[in-house]
Amino acid sequence: LNKEWQRTRLKQATILNALNTPQNFRDYFNKEVDLINTSMSRLSMLVERAENSPDRSKIFETNLFQKDFAELMIRAQSLYDNLRLYNEQLMSAEKAAE
């Protein structure tokens, strides 16, 4: 059994628990945002490559691609919803601190 995902998750939890300064938090936050941006760029390049492929219709019209793309849209919407919620929490915290 591959336990790499468990080690990765434990490492991430350890890093999160070690965030004890505003600079550490900012660095971690920026790294995570960069990872999201990198992933989205790769997906964009993949879709562009598929659009320019002679097998374009075969790629985009497969049930598997459509299912995976729908899942990506759901995850992106969830990410957006979470960001909006975090923003509301930050705004509430700022108002409470005033």
Describe the structure.
By secondary structure, the chain is mostly helical. It folds into 2 domains: 7-54, no CATH class; 62-98. Helix content is 86%, strand content 0%. The longest helix has 35 residues, at 63-97.
Short description:
With 98 residues, the protein is mainly α. The chain has 4 helices and no strands.
User: Strand percentage, roughly?
Assistant: under 5%
Number of strands: 0
Quaternary: single chain
Low-confidence stretches: none
Tally of discrete structural domains:
2
Distance between the termini: 52 Å
Query: What would you report as the Rg, rounded to the nearest angstrom?
Result: 19 Å
Descriptive tags:
single chain, 98 residues, mainly alpha, 0% strand, extended
Write the layout of secondary structure elements.
Layout: H1 4-17, H2 22-51, H3 56-60, H4 63-97
